[in-house]
Amino acid sequence: MRGRRRLPTAGTRSGGSACGRQRSPFSGPAPRTEMHDSRTGVALMLAVWVLLVLGFASLQVLAQVRGRVDVATVARTQTVARYAAESGVVAARALLEELVQGADSPEAQARVFGEFQRIIETWGVQELRSARYQVVVEDLNARVDLNESREEVLHGLFRQFVGDARAAELLDALWGWGLEGEAGQVQPVETPEASADEALLRASVADRPPLMHLEELALMQGFDEALVAELAPYVTVRGDGLVNVNSAPLPVLTASPDVGPVAARTLTESRDQEGLFDSKVGLLSVLREASAGELDSQLPDLVTAPRRVLVVARGWEEGRPASHEVQAVLEVQWSRMIVGERTRLRAWGERSR
Predict the structure, then answer these.
(1) Contact between residue 13 and residue 20 where contact means Cβ atoms under 8 Å apart
(2) Which candidate, 121, 222, 113, places its Cα nearest to that of 163?
């Protein structure tokens, strides 16, 4: 078989090894895989950073939008609450107007406020879609008015709590409110005929600005918070100086110089046992039996029906904590000569809570 050439086997070639075509893992530099991986990692980090920035920006935008939504929600809630409170005042005034129009006798007029208060209490919480309101009412003529009452009436009230001597000092402080100088002393009203002390005693409500809030009492000399708290159930700054004998409590009746402590107890017992007073004639008869001194037959401080009524309405939206309160003072005009509405708005105040 000499002379025959051997053909190379598969995977080999002449003059080379059988593995000549295979690359050894250590035979040379790797292809550009590591550089590619590095670039991929940088791109991923950049993408993550961009996502973080966008996420942060989105949160900021979301917070601003949410804040604007909250502001709008609060504004809407306050508007609904105010609307509800005002609706309560309107409804209460309409009811009072109806009762006053229907009171065609002194007996009926004396019963008006009691009936008005009873009906208001049955209302409870009234619903107007998502709005709610509740109303309470008060006869301001059941209190002594600090702006309009006579000096004798105010002194008669104060002395029940602090005695005669200090009551006179409190009265001077009240009359001098708004007339104080730099040293905090009351400045006398100068007149050619009167001394400074006499002129000071002549100071009246017309000489000073009226009190707007009961809290102002605590700012006056001689009044402290404890005394103001004791007086608060029996005084007002929105009345007209008259006292309704059918609704006033014992201290308010006692304050009148035509009543006093003994007659005041007699009045309260009489109205509780025999019914309300419907005229000054019957009232004067009871007072004469209970009083030892002379009486002014006109009884200038006393009435048998309310003249000023306070309506307090609180409104809110269902499920919301915010509320709005309206306080309205209504004046009742009993004259049958008046054509049209018999109630008139005298004062209006409101606040949000």
Answers:
(1) yes
(2) 222
Within the chain, how many helices (H) and strands (E) appear? 9, 9
- In the numeric block, which tokens belong to residue 136? 């309470």
Which of 269, 347, 278, 258 is CA-nearest to residue 310?
Answer: 347
Residue 225, pLDDT above cutoff 70: yes
Q: Of 309, 301, 300, which Cα lies nearest the Cα of 327? A: 309
Burial tier of 194 (Cβ tally within 10 Å: 0-12, 13-18, 19+): middle
What is residue 148's three-state secondary structure? Answer: coil
- Identify the burial level of 114 via C-beta atoms within 10 angstroms of its C-beta, where 0-12 means exposed, 13-18 middle and 19 or more buried: middle
Overall pTM > 0.90: no
So where are the chain's domains? 66-141+307-352, 146-233, 248-300
Span 7-58, pLDDT tens digits: 555 444 444 444 445 555 445 555 555 665 667 777 777 777 777 777 766 6
Cα atoms in the Cβ-side hemisphere of radius 13 Å centred on 317: 14
324 token code pair: 């709005």
Tell me the per-residue pLDDT of 159-169, one tens digit each, with 9 for 90 and over.
999 999 999 99
> Can you tell me the distance from the alpha carbon of 18 to that of 332, in angstroms, rounded to the nearest whole number?
124
**Of residues 347, 314, 290, 340, the one with CA closest to residue 80:** 314
